Amino acid sequence: MDNRPIGVFDSGLGGLTAVKELLHIMPHENIIYFGDTGRVPYGSRSRETIMKYAGQDMAFLESKNVKMIIAACGTVSSVASGIGEKLTLPYTGVLKPAAAAAGKATGNGKVGVIATTATIRSGSYRRELAAINPEIEVFDRDCPLFVPLVENGWIAEDEQVTRLVAQRYLTPLREAGIDTLIMGCTHYPIIRHIISEVMGSGVTLIDSGRETAAYCSALLRKQGLLCDRSADGDCSFYVSDRMEGFSQIAGIFLGKDIKREVSHVDIDLY
Fold first, then answer.
1. Alpha-carbon span 130 to 121, nearest angstrom
2. For a Cys staple, 203 with which of 14, 143, 163, 199, CB 3.0–4.6 Å?
């Protein structure tokens, strides 16, 4: 048993979709979430900057005595994939769990990937899927407008602007005949209903946050690091820039209202 919290970080609030899945799979675990809201987005930054930011994010979580760190950020997982190797505690990004799930799900060997520009440019999913099965054909597309649309609340099923953007991004992938689509950014599950409708019922959507939560649960169980199950878990939220109405915004990502306030962190101290 290990009652220390799980540390989760993202460039903003999208990683809360991974927290939602962690809470569903492991409701007794304590979670500390850090969203780097002062420097969002990471998807348009250089590799050097992303490495620096991710290192600071992890240093903050280590200061909270976490037992595992999850980079719930597709950009960090792709561009700074080796950054967790320096840690003395378990670490995972969202890349490998999502790619593994897609490799199992595809029937026709045609897999689509949607993510930030930095993630797509890195070629990380292409390499990971090729390592799983070199016969898989990968069709990828960056979708830079999805993150601001989600963070500004343009997420309703009948939201025409978001639907039009999704059609522009996703139509080439649908026409390519993919049967599996990796949502490689943790913001994207918030508009899953729109993505699914545009792609059609024959396409399996891979939620990188959900797959990462399942991977985390299996790893902690294997290493004997699951917490005492006698009590419900607790979540603490930290951001690098103060956000008015955090509870309301976070509630969209978590799928439920939260009562607690967010704490501010001067991330440059780490």
1. 16
2. 199
152 and 182 together in one domain? yes
Q: Tell me the residue range of the domain where 81 lies.
A: 6-93+210-269
- Active-site residue, selected from the candidate residues 185, 216, 227, 235: 185
Tracing tokens 């993202």 back to the chain, one arrives at 10
Question: Residues 214, 204: one domain?
Answer: no
Structure tokens at 224: 């004997």
127-18-23-246 Cα dihedral, nearest 10 degrees:
170
List pLDDT tens digits, range 92-136: 999 999 999 999 999 999 999 999 998 999 999 999 999 999 999
Tell me whether residue 143 is one of the annotated catalytic residues: no
Is 264 in a helix, a strand, or coil?
strand
Q: Is 235 an active-site residue?
A: no
Nearest by Cα to 112 from 45, 163, 157, 169: 169
Within a domain: residue 1? no
Q: At what angle do helices 160-175 and 192-199 cross, to 10 degrees?
A: 40
> What pTM, to 2 d.p., does this model score?
0.91
Same domain assignment for residues 88 and 62: yes
Same domain, 38 and 109: no
Same domain, 63 and 108: no
Whether 86 and 220 map to the same domain: the answer is yes
